[in-house]
Amino acid sequence: MPDGIGSRDRHLPFDLGDGMKGLLLSGGMDSIALAWWLRPEQAITVDYGQLAAIAETRTSRQVCEELGIGHTVIEARCPELGSGDMAGDAPHQLAPVPEWWPFRNQLLATLAGMKAVQLGVTELIFGAVRGDGSHADGLPRFFEDLDRLMSGQEGGLNVTAPAIGMSTEELIVKSKVPRSVLAWAHSCHRGDLACGDCRGCYKNAEVIANVYGDL
């Protein structure tokens, strides 16, 4: 692992034998910075029923158009299986943070992995950063286990999280993503318009202040 660790297609005509990289693009700050830094050939956005799905998809499409990255949107809505802020429900009793959704990253890896294999992608990149360790599926060991599981199956799809050892601020600086592009990021967990009162909105404001000195 480097440095740590129903669909609508608009993908580009790449040679499927070239070993393409695919990024799981949520439209948040971390995945946008990774897209700018790594320039993968493909990006995959998943609408699994989260309240901010429309905004996340719109932002992801804008980023891909800016970078000339192929973009696939997978629709597999299952809001009844979620919990907390992203599902518009009370957090589950097991939730370590208000936005926790059971097995979310495992679900995203499976759905995105299915499409990635069809597209000829051989590396599926997650935009996980150091701060995501507040829940088990944001830890390095989770992505290591996921990589072993998926790379051992047909297609040999590797799962990586190149920014897992970085903070969001460090990733933004490393990626050199322009502020004008980062401004497209949708961080709110509760809907398509920023609520200003969830952990995603708080993180966005804190990161902008830390990187750019804004209040």
Q: What is the structure about, briefly put?
A:
The protein is α/β, with parallel strands linked by helices and 215 residues long.
List the helices and strands and how they pair.
Blueprint: E1 7-10, E2 20-24, H1 29-38, E3 42-47, H2 53-67, E4 70-75, H3 104-119, E5 121-125, H4 140-151, E6 158-160, H5 168-175, H6 179-182, H7 199-212
Parallel strand pairs: 2-3, 2-5, 3-4, 5-6
Antiparallel strand pairs: 1-4
CATH homologous superfamily assignment: HUPs
| Unreliable segments of 5+ consecutive residues | 6-17
Structural class: alpha/beta
- State the order of secondary-structure elements, H for helix, E for strand: EEHEHEHEHEHHH
Determine the CATH topology.
Rossmann fold
Number of self-contained structural domains: 1
| Portion in beta strands | 5-15%
Q: Averaged pLDDT, please? A: 92
Bin the helical content: 25-40%
What is the global morphology? globular
Q: Report the total helices.
A: 7
**What separation lies between the terminal Cα atoms?**
36 Å
